[in-house]
Amino acid sequence: MNAHESALLEDLNPPQREAVLHIGGPLLVLSGAGSGKTRVITRRVAYLVKVHEVFPWRILAVTFTNKAAREMRERLVQLLGRQANDLVVSTFHSAAAMILRREAEHVGLTRSFVIYDDGDQLNVVKRAMREAGLEQSMQPRDILSRIDQEKNAARLPEDMEVEPGDERGMLVRKVYHAYQERLRAANAVDFGDLLLLLVSLFRKRPEVLENYRRRFHHVLVDEFQDTNPVQYALLKQLAPPPSANLVVVGDDDQSIYRWRGADVDNILNFPRQYPGAKVVKLEQNYRSDRNILDAAYEVIRKNTRRMDKKLWSDRPAGQTLQLMLNRDERMEAQEVARQILALQREGFIKFSSMAVFYRVNAQSRVLEEGLRLARVPYTLVSGRSFYDRAEVRDASAYLRLMVNPRSDADLLRIINTPARGIGDTTVERLTDHANTQAKSLFEVLSEPERVPALNSTAVKRLRTFHGLLKTLHDFAQGTTDAASAVDEMLRETKLVETLVAEGSDESNTRAENLREFLGAAQEFDLNRAAAAVAAASQPREEVPPEVDAAPLSADTPPLQAFLEQISLVGDADAEVGEGRVALMTLHAAKGLEFDAVFLTGLEDGVFPHSRALKGEDPDNGEEMAEERRLCYVGFTRARKRLFVSLAQCRSLFGELRYNPPSRFLRDVPPALFGISEQDVPEPPRAVATPPRKRTWDDDDGPRIDRSYSQTSDMDSVSGDVRGMRVRHEQFGVGRIVATDGTGPNAKVTVEFGGAVGLKRVIARFLMPG
Ligand SMILES: Nc1ncnc2c1ncn2[C@@H]1O[C@H](COP(=O)(O)OP(=O)(O)OP(=O)(O)O)[C@@H](O)[C@H]1O
Ligand SMILES: [Mg+2]
C-alpha cells in the first residue's frame, strides 16, 4: 500500500473500505443515517483519482442540494488539491443545465435560454389557458402541479397517459402542450425541463448521449433514495445497466421527497435494475450519541414497509433527549433561545454547531423573533429569499432580457417597472397583438404603431421602452463579465435611483438590496476568474481525441452563467454564517449534522403535518410514513444534544390551534427523555371543550395531563381524544377515531358498534361513554 492509499483508507471501517475499493460496475451502499455514506463517496472519488489514476474529468458526482455539492467539493479539494477542479460535482439540476446549454440547439433552444421559476411558470400557464379559452376550467396552480408531476415522471405532453373520458386529464394535456410551446417560444425552460429535455434528447439522439458516455466513466450519486423517475432515467442513460460504474448511496428511511416525485423503490429495486450490483451495508453510526440513535430507531421502526437496519454505535449513551413543553409558540421560541444560550455558556457548544428545525416555513417567523429578542445570532437557511425579493427579481428580469429578449414573462414583469406610464390596457393590446402574430412581445415592440387601438402617447412610450431593452441587449453582447452588465442595467433602468427618490426606509432597503445584487455579480466574476486561472495552470493529461473533456460550463458566457447560478439557488443553499445558529426546515436539514438540534412543533397537525392525518388509516398511510422518515432525518442530525419541543396551543396560518402532542413522541421510550412513564404527554388528554362545558373534564373523563401543562396558565383545554369511549343519544357507544377542529363544535369521527359504523358528529352531542 502506498502512502496515498493508506491515507485514504485508514479511517474507514471494513465495509466502507470495501465500497471505496470496489473495482468497477454498479455498487449500492444502503445504510442508515450517519454511517458514513457521504464519506464513502468523497473517499472513493479521491481514491479513483489518486490510486487508480482516473482523470478527474471522467468523474461525475451528483447530490441534491447546492449546499451538499459545495461541501462535497470542499472536501475533495482538501483530498485532491487542484485536481479537484476538473471533477464535476454538482446537483442533478445544475449538471443537467450545463449539459443542456451545450446541446441547446438540438432541443429548439439557443444557448441563452433562461430558467423560469414557479412564479414565471404560473404566469405562462395562465397565458396558455387564456389563449386556449380554458381560463375557467381548472385552477392554474393545479394544472401546474400536474405538469410538474408529468415532468418528474419523465413524460412530455405526447407521452401523457390519459384515460378516455378523463376530461381533466385531457385538459391538463392540452394546457401542458400549449405551455411547452410558450416556453420554447420564449427560449425558456422550467426546472423540470432541465432534466426532461435532456433525457428526451438522449433518447432521440443516441450519438449525443454517446459523447457523454465516452467522457464520464464514473458516476456517483449521494442521497439516491430521493431520485425521481426523470433523474433515474438520466442516470441510466449516462451509466447504463448492467455494468456501468454507477455508485449510488442512500437510505430508504430518509426518503423525504415523495411530493416531488421521488420514489423510494428506486433504491430498493436497484439490484434488480443493475443485476450483479454489489451491495454494501454500513452498520456503524459515527454521528450520534446512543440515546439519540435509539430514539430515532424507535420512531422509524413503526414504518411497515422498510428494510430493517439497526445501527450500532460505540459512542457513549450521552445525555438524555430533552422534552420542552410550552404554553404556546412564543414561549417555545423563547425557551429555544434560552436553551441555546445555556448550551453555549455551560455546554461549550458553539452557535455554529446548533440548529433549529421546523416542519413548515410559517413556523420560522416566531422562532426568528425569539432568537432576535434573546440576541442569539442565527442564519435562516432559506437561500431563495434574497433572490425572491421583488426588486431583485425585477433586476434579474432585466438581466434575463439582456441575454434573451424573447422571454415574455420577464418582459411583462418589468414593462412598467420603474413606472413609465405603460398601463394595463396597453399591455393587453400588446399581448393580443403578439398572440395573433405569433411573435414575442419584444418583436412586436419594435413596431408599436402596428398594435391596434393604441394612442400616440402609448406608442411613444412603448418605443422608448423598446429602445431601452435594445440598448441593454446590445451591451450584453459585448460584455465579458457579469458585474458590468448588472452595473449597466442598473444605470440604464434607474431602478436604484427610483427607489432612493422614494425616500422611505422600505425603499432605501430595497435600493440596498440592489447594490448587494451588484455585489453578488462581482463576487461571481472573481470566483470565475480564480477558477479559470486554476484550470489554466494545471497540467492537462493526454485527452483522447474523441473525448470532450472541457469543463461543462466552459463556453457559457459570464452573464448567462451568473443567471443560471441564481436560478438554481435552492431552498437549502444559504451559507450558514460563522458563529450563527442555523434555522431551517426539516427538508433542508438532510445530510447535515450538528452538536445540538432543536426540533420544534412536535404536535399532531404540525408534525406530523395535518395532511398526513387525513384519511382512513393515518398510521399506515404513505404520507404518514413519509412524515415519520422526516422525523428520523431530524433526530439523526444531532450529535450530542437533541431537544424536542411542543406547544399546547399555537397560532399558525392565522388560526389558533390546540394540537395534541405528536404521535412520534409516544414512540420514544420515556427513559430516553429521562422521565418516567407518567410524565409523558400522553393520552388520555383533555378534549377541546371550554371550561364552562365540563362534559369531558370531570373525574371520569380525560383531563389535562399536569406534566404536559406545567408551563401553562390557560384554563381552556384541548388534546388528543382518539381512542376515547363516548356515548351519543341516538348512535349509542363508540370510540373516537379522529377529530377535526377544537371547541364544542369540533367535528368528531366515531366508530360506533354494530350496524352504525363510522359517523361524524359534533362534539357537544357526545358524552363520555
Ligand atoms: N470510519 C469512520 N470513522 C470516524 N468517523 C466517521 C467514519 N465514517 C464516518 N464518520 C463520520 O461520521 C459522520 C457521518 O458521516 P456521513 O455524513 O458520511 O454519514 P451519512 O451516512 O452520509 O449520513 P446521512 O445519512 O445523514 O447522510 C461524519 O461526521 C463523518 O465524518
Ligand atoms: Mg450523507
TrEMBL record:
Alphabetized UniProt keyword annotations: ATP-binding, DNA-binding, Helicase, Hydrolase, Isomerase, Nucleotide-binding
GO biological process assignments: recombinational repair
Ranges for domain UvrD-like helicase C-terminal: 290-591
Single GO MF descriptor: DNA binding
EC primary class: isomerase
E.C. designation(s): 5.6.2.4
Gene3D superfamilies reported for this sequence: 1.10.10.160, P-loop containing nucleotide triphosphate hydrolases, PCRA, domain 4
SUPFAM superfamilies noted in UniProt: P-loop containing nucleoside triphosphate hydrolases (SSF52540)
Reaction(s) catalysed (UniProt annotation): ATP + H2O = ADP + phosphate + H(+); Couples ATP hydrolysis with the unwinding of duplex DNA by translocating in the 3'-5' direction
Region spans: Disordered: 675-718
Domain UvrD-like helicase ATP-binding residues, every copy: 10-289
UniProt xrefs under PANTHER family: ATP-DEPENDENT DNA HELICASE SRS2, UVRD / RECB / PCRA DNA HELICASE FAMILY MEMBER
Entry similarity comment: Belongs to the helicase family. UvrD subfamily.
Name by which UniProt lists this protein: DNA 3'-5' helicase
